[in-house]
Amino acid sequence: MSQEHVVAVNPIFARPGEAVAVERYRMPIGEMLPETAYRIVHDEVMLDGNARQNLATFVGTWMDEYAARLYTESFDKNMVDKDEYPHTAIIEDRCWKILAGLWNAPDPTHTIGTSTVGSSEACMLAGLALKRRWQHARRAAGKPTDRPNLVMSSAVQVVWEKFCNYWDVTPRFVPISEEHRTLDGHDLAAYVDENTIGVVAILGVTYTGAYEPVKRIAEALDRIQRDTGLDVPIHVDGASGAMVAPFLQSDLEWDFRLERVHSINTSGHKYGLVYPGLGWVVWRTADLLPEDLIFKVSYLGGETPSLALNFSRPGAQVLLQYYQFLRLGRSGYRAVQKSSQDVARHLADSIGAMDAFELWNDGSDIPVFAWRLKPGHTDNWNLYDLSDRLRMKGWQVPAYPMPDNLADTTVQRIVVRDGLGMDLARDLLDDIRAATDFLERLSGPMPTDGAAPGFHH
């Protein structure tokens, strides 16, 4: 059997007579010691990247020891089993009501929301609510419901393309440009019509971390309603920014203070500061979630709404979210996010001061920023080469093209999360400077074979 089809087992880990090779793609015939199975899996992932040096992902990679203890004590809790774990269900309810208050819902205790397995599921639920409300209104008016569309920036995260594909909604992408670097309300009337179920505004664009100006988008939709009578709602994809803006930009009007904002989602496992596997979606008022999307689940002699697409799912991360709310409070969250933003601004200022680069944005929204090579600076190397040099030092700093209309522009991006402090940031800057100096000394072009966009979700 070829080497790529087996996993070699070090004999020192196995008992006498135990197999020293295990097929990769078939279940073994017999048993092995738990220590042996543990060591095989442990060694398989040993060469994965160091999570603390992964500056590509928005997903949290660190929690404190008490959170880790709580996590191990609640691995077995199934979020959907509210009859068996009623107090976990109560805590879930508290969490989304806390978020509703954080996002300035008119009456946080009487709106509706749910936890999900990340923001992607939350986006699906919010999109479904937009589509279903539009369908109900169209049917009530005796109009067809077969051509719904959703308006969004060309820089949306791929989940929105998936939503449109899975649920038969036509995406209408508003292209970003040098002049309009986010969806900002410009020319929005050209994309909205009677079949538009809503507009997605992003609080923290995946490509760059920049906020889309939700209030300006709402004002543009207000003008469209005055001119045409079309009343188009907004969903705010706050996967990252909805857990940053309330603490760092509290005066920014992006949330339920704007009546046109019907729903907001966020990732608990991003700037919510929880381990992977948690998202949230909340509606401004309960009536904005159609009743026919809600399933009633009985527990504690009463009923609770069940909204999620997934049925059995972990309850542990919900408990971790509540732990963080209790542990940090508003002041603690502000301190953590401000620390990350300070690091991001320091990195951005330092990289922007280098001769080879110019900033696309500076990390003053969420603690994320992007830069590009100055036009005409060099033909010998590009940002993919810099990304490769940094990977040699363990840093994952992705380079990738911007979306349509800017596809000829390549940027590089750093996501600063809790765990990347100033000391590590200085080490990173030293490595960026060293890698850039190496590339600048090239006497000819770097080979281009194999250059590919890095991970940027």
UniProtKB/TrEMBL annotation:
GO terms for biological process: L-glutamate catabolic process. The keyword Lyase applies. It catalyses: L-glutamate + H(+) = 4-aminobutanoate + CO2. CDD domains: DOPA_deC_like (cd06450). Keywords: Decarboxylase, Lyase, Pyridoxal phosphate. Its EC number is 4.1.1.15. It is an enzyme of class 4 (lyase). The modification N6-(pyridoxal phosphate)lysine is found at K270. One of its GO terms (molecular function) is glutamate decarboxylase activity. Transmembrane segments: none annotated. One of its GO terms (cellular component) is cytosol. Pfam families: Pyridoxal_deC. Its cofactor is pyridoxal 5'-phosphate. Belongs to the group II decarboxylase family. NCBIfam families: Glu-decarb-GAD. This is Glutamate decarboxylase. It comes from Embleya scabrispora.
